[in-house]
């Protein structure tokens, strides 16, 4: 990822000079060590714990800025930990899980996790996700500029104007709703269910084919090469993500 | 291999000697060329044509095919098939001033083709050739490992030579030893019904050499053709049975071991016959010989009473139960029929009953036993007490005058016509010559109307001739006594003509019937031999039985637990009542037949027969005559049982085959586990050692290394870890696919999106290639599991990247083909080694052309597994202009859901 010091961004977003505190709930010592070393060197404070039940307590007492939660914990299900945290806290949570457990990831995201990473992952990827999560948590993205720009796409949310390479593009109402939803969550993954619920209403949460068709239309309108999308990214088996840089 | 052991204890242990012989034979066959014979009943059935067609097909699929010799007189259609094939020049031979062309064996051997076509296996070479006979040429070709296609007519087979001579009156001198026929790898019957053959002959489509045309004209008669066809069909049926036998022996099904002795017992309806059968069984058992129970039925005469039929069938069934093969022979001369059959089947001992009839009758009918012992030659004859002499129903043939009155009216009318003709020409001819008209009339009647009317015509002719033409006219009185001789000769000639014609007709009819039976049985055994499932076998049985016996059928199959289940879905089946179900159960439990025409539960509407193999009842067939309560004659009943037994044997064969394939699967799984272990240990250890090596270097002397080296080591660790991750992912996928635990999440997918997501993810693997994607816009959604389809795409694209050089293009294209989505991934690599198109999809197979970094050998296997789970197909082929193309399809059976259009803002 491009940014040399992501923690600087995080600090700029809210918590000024204080290093953001990250709670890592993970039982594998090797991964803990890797997270500790790499996060510390990127300007984060790290607190580790091995068990889910402890994690819930630490999340309450230590008030971390972000939680990294492994879904496969030895004592209680990671999903259970997430639900307990979400009962009283909006702290961003990034879940870690193994490949092939897409259903778990979707369940976690639908239960309020902010993002996910598939093991094994690189540190660059992790820090990019953390930055996005922290930014959204601080409310910076939601309250941001009425103009959104990424690559060759420019959307004026106030005037409802979409431009690709400075040429206006006409979107249907649904396409526009879809695009603005993704822009509001730029850089964050949204599950199929979340998007369907927001764009088509609660009754349509199973109709994934709507999403495929409209996403296809949208790509043809705003991507340079719809077969190799750069902005509207697919998270296989999980959902979609709008590229934030 | 545990299962393999249980398998062999289930059946009998195969005879090691037999297996060895089988193995040797197979070995010898594999070193020798393969001989395929196109076999026919007579010239003109289309053997050469079929052979050339097969050869053309063969030549398309690579085999080096050479036409060694085709009869130069072949028809234009046949000649046309030779075009485009490689043809060997014929050898010219001068013989007695004539120039003959012959097959050039030496040239063929020098040319060494993969497959050679040599017509007319029975041909005799011109003097001076290497071998006297063409089959010897062919044998040499086979010994040299060259495959041969050839043609042969049944009359050229040594073993049937005498029968053919007797049937047709033509002595065939060009014969081929049966061993050649028996050893052929494949025999294909080219069959044409006699009527069609005669039609072709009339149309001049059959070649008849001039010098032999007279003999051949005699040869091409319907009666002959029917008999020849029967012979050919029988030969084929024997062969098919032998193949089944050989299979059974391989799988230790057969309980009989062939020895040189063979016992034949003559069976009659007499209740005492059962003693004979048992005696024969004992003798056969003590000799460890196979044995045959034969019954001779006379074609003419009234049908025997039902009670006799029933008893006869009981006796034959008893014999079958005791392990005999049973046959029904048909002919007027019992002794000759029995001996002829015995010789044909290498019988060494014949058992007959001691005569019970009074001695005086032997004066008239001749003693059966006496004649048998006189004429038996080197066959031993055993006479056992307690059996009526005649091994069949004793009614002597009697002349009957059946027929409707109109046929007699016809006879009278023809005599009248002859008289009128005679009156017309009376002035120019003598009365004696006019008598010839009448003989002509008798001939016409006997041909058209049968025996009774023609005898009437003979008698009428004499009377009318006397009254009308012989002076004094108008009375029966005769002036010149010479005419009495004329009358006598006329009458005798007329009656003789009538009898002879009737006999010829009845023989033709018999031949036709026998031919039909043989054809029905052959048709069944041929169908059964090729069927692989019980389902298909039962359908074939139902179809063949209902066609051959004019019946409806019902079949119950014994299930795993022993219960019977009705198969209601067969063709021409009847709906059995509860009572029928009860009878079927009885039949299954007792292994005996019951119902209509038997001694048990005889009031039923249908007959029920057990279908048993190796002593176990596998199923029960019920047959209901379409003509209500028609009784089956013993011969019919016997054939029905043969049908049932054959089908049962086939059912057993399929279940054995299923067992065998299960064992093979287990062995394969075992082998797979071993190769999995070795692959895993190798493929996991290689990156591990690299990681450990690089890690320890960094740890121990990290500070002494320069930055570039350190970075290089770190990159090694990272790359190797990724490749391990990849391998483990593949292993898990493969295991899940194999275990069948992959559940498809059926959703509507956009192929464009799936490919798009990949092109980002695979940036690293594709950085050295040009990646091109072609998906038509508005391509319909496809139903499937997005993650799994993406996995297929990823594996295929990574495979393409791995095997094609940097800088080349990898193209992914999507199109619609025959209602399926077709995805193709094409590269410009070295392509697939010929013959490995299938193999590369197997587990741990890596293309032979591997040069770059080897894959795990699982990617394509996983791709295939996923595609097949989706009901699609996957295949690989080389592109005509270089490189490989991997394609897979996804079925699009369902219409994608409709999505309401909306207004653009």
What descriptors fit this protein?
heterodimer, A: 245 residues, alpha/beta, Rossmann fold, Arc Repressor Mutant, subunit A, five-stranded parallel beta sheet, four-stranded antiparallel beta sheet, 12 strands, 20% strand, globular, disordered N terminus, B: 905 residues, 5 domains, six-stranded parallel beta sheet, 28 helices, 25 strands, 15% strand
Q: Largest sheet of chain B at a glance?
A: 6 strands, parallel
Give the strand content of chain A: 15-25%
CATH topology-level fold name of the largest domain in chain B: Rossmann fold
Q: Using only CA atoms, what is the Rg of chain B?
A: 38 Å
CATH topology of the largest domain in chain A: Rossmann fold
Oligomer: heterodimer
Examine the secondary-structure arrangement and name the CATH architecture of the largest domain in chain A: 3-Layer(aba) Sandwich
Mean pLDDT value of chain A: 86
Strand content of chain B: 15-25%
The structural class of chain B is alpha/beta
Number of spatially distinct domains of chain A = 2
The CATH class name of the largest domain in chain B reads Alpha Beta
Please indicate the count of domains of chain B.
5
Overall strand count of chain A: 12
**Which percent bin holds the helix content of chain A?**
40-55%
Going by CATH, what is the homologous superfamily of the largest domain in chain A?
Response regulator
Q: What is the radius of gyration of chain A? A: 18 Å
């Amino acid at each position: 990822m491009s940014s040399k010091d992501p923690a600087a961004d995080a600090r700029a977003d809210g918590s000024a000079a204080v290093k953001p505190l990250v709670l890592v709930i993970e039982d594998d010592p090797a991964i803990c060590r890797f997270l500790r070393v790499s996060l510390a060197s990127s300007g984060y404070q790290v607190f580790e714990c091995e068990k889910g039940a402890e994690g819930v307590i630490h999340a309450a007492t230590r008030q971390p800025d972000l939680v990294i939660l492994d879904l496969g914990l030895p004592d209680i299900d990671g999903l259970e930990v997430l639900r307990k945290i979400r009962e009283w806290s909006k702290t961003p949570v990034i879940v870690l899980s193994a490949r092939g457990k897409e259903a778990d990831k979707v369940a976690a995201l639908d239960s309020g996790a902010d993002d996910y990473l598939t093991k094994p992952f690189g540190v660059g990827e992790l820090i990019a996700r953390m930055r996005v999560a922290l930014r959204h948590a601080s409310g910076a993205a939601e309250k941001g500029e009425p103009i959104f720009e990424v690559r060759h796409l420019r959307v004026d949310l106030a005037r409802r104007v979409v431009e690709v390479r400075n040429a206006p593009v006409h979107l249907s109402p649904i396409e526009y709703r879809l695009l603005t939803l993704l822009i509001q969550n730029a850089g964050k993954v949204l599950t199929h269910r979340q998007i369907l619920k927001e764009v088509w209403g609660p009754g349509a949460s199973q109709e994934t084919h709507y999403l495929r068709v409209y996403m296809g239309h949208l790509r043809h309108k705003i991507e340079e090469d719809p077969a190799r999308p750069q902005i509207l990214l697919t998270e296989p088996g999980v959902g979609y993500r709008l590229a934030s840089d | 291999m545990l299962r393999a052991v249980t398998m062999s204890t289930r059946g009998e242990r195969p005879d090691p000697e037999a297996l060895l012989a089988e193995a040797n034979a197979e070995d010898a066959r594999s070193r020798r060329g393969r001989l395929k014979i196109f076999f026919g009943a007579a010239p003109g059935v289309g053997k050469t044509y079929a052979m050339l067609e097969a050869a053309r097909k063969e030549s398309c699929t690579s085999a080096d095919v050479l036409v060694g010799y085709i009869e130069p007189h072949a028809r234009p259609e046949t000649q046309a098939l030779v075009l485009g094939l490689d043809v060997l020049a014929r050898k010219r031979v001068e013989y007695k001033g004539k120039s003959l062309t012959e097959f050039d064996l030496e040239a063929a051997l020098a040319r060494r083709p993969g497959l050679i076509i040599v017509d007319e296996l029975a041909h005799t070479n011109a003097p001076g050739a290497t071998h006297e006979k063409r089959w010897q040429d062919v044998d040499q070709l086979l010994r040299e490992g060259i495959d041969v296609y050839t043609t042969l007519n049944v009359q050229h087979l040594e073993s049937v030579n005498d029968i053919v001579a007797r049937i047709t009156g033509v002595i065939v001198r060009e014969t081929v030893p049966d061993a050649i026929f028996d050893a052929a790898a494949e025999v294909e019957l080219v069959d044409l019904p006699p009527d069609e053959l005669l039609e072709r002959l009339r149309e001049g489509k059959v070649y008849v050499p001039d010098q032999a045309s007279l003999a051949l004209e005699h040869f091409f008669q319907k009666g002959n053709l029917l008999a020849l066809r029967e012979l050919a069909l029988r030969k084929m049926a024997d062969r098919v049975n032998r193949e089944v036998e050989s299979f059974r022996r391989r799988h230790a099904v057969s309980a009989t071991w062939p020895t040189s002795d063979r016992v034949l017992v003559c069976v009659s309806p007499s209740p005492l016959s059962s003693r004979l059968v048992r005696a024969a069984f004992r003798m056969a058992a003590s000799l460890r010989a196979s044995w045959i129970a034969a019954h001779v039925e006379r074609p003419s005469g009234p049908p025997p009473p039902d009670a006799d039929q029933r008893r006869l069938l009981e006796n034959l069934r008893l014999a079958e139960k005791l392990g005999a093969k049973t046959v029904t022979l048909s002919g007027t001369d019992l002794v000759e029929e029995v001996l002829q059959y015995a010789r044909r089947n290498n019988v060494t001992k014949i058992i007959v009953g001691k005569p019970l009839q009074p001695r005086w009758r032997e004066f008239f009918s001749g003693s059966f036993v006496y004649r048998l012992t006189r004429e038996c030659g080197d066959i031993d004859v055993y006479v056992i007490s307690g059996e009526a002499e005649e091994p069949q129903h004793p009614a002597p043939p009697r002349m009957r005058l059946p027929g409707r009155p109109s046929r007699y009216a016809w006879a009278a009318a023809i005599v009248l016509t002859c008289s009128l003709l005679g009156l017309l020409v009376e002035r120019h001819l003598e009365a004696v010559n006019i008598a010839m008209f009448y003989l002509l009339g008798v001939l016409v009647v006997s041909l058209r109307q049968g025996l009774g009317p023609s005898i009437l015509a003979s008698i009428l002719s004499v009377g009318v001739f006397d009254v009308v033409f012989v002076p004094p006219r108008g009375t029966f009185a005769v002036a010149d006594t010479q005419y009495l001789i004329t009358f006598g000769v006329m009458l005798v000639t007329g009656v003789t003509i009538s009898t002879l014609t009737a006999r010829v007709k009845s023989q033709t009819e018999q031949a036709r019937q026998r031919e039909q039976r043989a054809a029905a049985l052959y048709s069944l055994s041929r169908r059964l031999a090729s069927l692989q499932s019980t389902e298909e076998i039962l359908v074939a049985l139902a179809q063949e039985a209902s066609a051959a016996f004019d019946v409806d059928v019902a079949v119950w199959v014994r299930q795993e637990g022993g219960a019977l289940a009705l198969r209601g879905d067969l063709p021409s089946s009847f709906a059995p009542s509860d009572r029928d179900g009860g009878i079927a159960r009885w039949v299954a439990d007792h292994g005996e037949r019951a119902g209509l025409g038997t001694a048990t539960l005889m009031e039923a509407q249908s007959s029920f027969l057990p279908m048993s193999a190796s002593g176990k009842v596998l199923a029960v067939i019920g047959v209901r005559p379409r003509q209500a309560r028609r009784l089956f004659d013993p011969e019919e009943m016997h054939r029905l049982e043969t049908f049932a037994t054959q089908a049962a044997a086939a059912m057993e064969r399929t279940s054995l085959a299923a067992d065998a394939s299960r064992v093979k699967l287990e062995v394969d799984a075992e082998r797979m586990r071993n190769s999995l272990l070795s692959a895993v240990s190798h493929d996991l250890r290689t990156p591990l050692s690299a990681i450990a090596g690089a890690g320890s270097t960094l740890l121990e002397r990290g500070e002494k290394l320069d930055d570039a080296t350190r970075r290089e080591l770190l990159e090694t660790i990272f790359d190797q870890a990724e490749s391990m991750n990849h391998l483990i992912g593949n292993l898990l996928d493969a295991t899940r696919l194999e275990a069948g635990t992959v559940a498809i999440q059926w959703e509507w997918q956009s192929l464009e999106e799936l490919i798009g997501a990949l092109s980002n993810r695979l940036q690293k693997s594709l950085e050295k290639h040009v990646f091109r994607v072609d998906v038509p816009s508005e391509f319909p959604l496809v139903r499937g599991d997005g993650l799994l389809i993406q996995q297929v795409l990823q594996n295929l694209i990574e495979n393409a990247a791995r095997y094609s050089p940097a800088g080349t293009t990898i193209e992914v294209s999507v199109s619609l083909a025959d209602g399926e989505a077709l995805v193709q991934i094409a590269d410009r690599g070295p392509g697939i080694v010929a013959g490995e198109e299938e193999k590369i999809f197997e587990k741990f197979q890596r293309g032979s052309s591997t040069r770059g970094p080897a894959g795990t050998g699982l990617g394509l296997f996983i791709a295939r597994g996923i595609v097949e789970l989706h009901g699609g197909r996957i295949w690989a082929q080389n592109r005509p202009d270089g490189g490989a193309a991997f394609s897979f399809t996804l079925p699009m059976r369902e219409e994608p859901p409709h999505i309401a259009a909306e207004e653009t803002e």
